[in-house]
Specification:
A hairpin with a 2-residue loop joins strand 1 and strand 2 (about 10-20). By secondary structure, the protein is of the alpha+beta class. The protein has helices at about 25-30, 85-95, 105-115, 125-130, 140-155, and strands spanning about 5-10, 10-20, 50-55, 55-60, 75. The strands form two sheets. The chain has a three-stranded antiparallel beta sheet with strand order 4-3-5, with helices on one face. Strands 1-2 form a two-stranded antiparallel sheet. The mean pLDDT is about 95. It is built from five helices and five strands; from the N terminus they run ββαβββαααα. About 35% of the residues lie in helices and about 15% in strands. Bound molecules: FE2/S2 (inorganic) cluster (2 copies). One FE2/S2 (inorganic) cluster binds next to loops.
């Protein structure tokens, strides 16, 4: 049975009608029209559906909407500010760190969460942070470059 549930997404409260065990991913995509998070595996295995949940990158396919509560959720769409791309989005574009782009949402979200905590990550830090994100296209080297570039843009005043 559908409940009325309030969730905080991209800085705004949203009232959604859904059974509490509905995956947050479905609500974001189907109720709120936020198509940044992708449905890959639905099993917490690929990372394509990631959102920032509180301060952590989290797979939204396995989060039940009824469990979200007041924890703020940021999707790919919510990373932009004043019409400007987030530095991580900018870096991924600059480095052309995608082929099909299906994994890109999760890669960007995981990177954004990492760089808030670790300003100058080592290669090991990056690999560990992106361990839950699969890319079937082999874009990994460009993704690594994009994460380093994003770190420069965010924290070293690079242009
Ligand atoms: S769709 Fe959520 S981890 Fe794959
Ligand atoms: S760019 Fe295609 S899955 Fe990563």
């Amino acid at each position: 049975m559908a409940d009325q549930i309030v969730i905080q997404v991209n800085g705004n409260p949203h009232i959604v009608q859904a059974p509490p065990d509905t995956p947050l991913l479905y609500v974001l995509r189907n109720e709120l029209g936020l198509h940044g998070p992708q449905f890959g595996c639905g099993l917490e295995q690929c990372g394509a559906c990631m959102v920032i949940y509180g301060k952590e990158a989290k797979q939204s396919c396995k989060l039940r909407v009824g469990d979200v509560g007041a924890t703020p959720i940021i999707t790919l769409e919510g990373l932009m500010e004043d019409g400007q791309l987030h530095p991580v989005q900018q870096a991924f574009m600059e480095q052309q760190a995608a082929q099909c782009g299906f994994c890109t949402n999760g890669m960007i979200i995981a990177t954004a969460a990492l760089l808030v905590k670790v300003h100058d990550p080592s290669e090991r830090d990056i690999r560990e942070a992106l361990d839950g994100n699969l890319c079937r296209c082999g874009s990994h080297l460009r993704i690594l470059r994009a994460v380093r570039r994003a770190s420069e843009l965010m924290w070293k005043g690079a242009e």
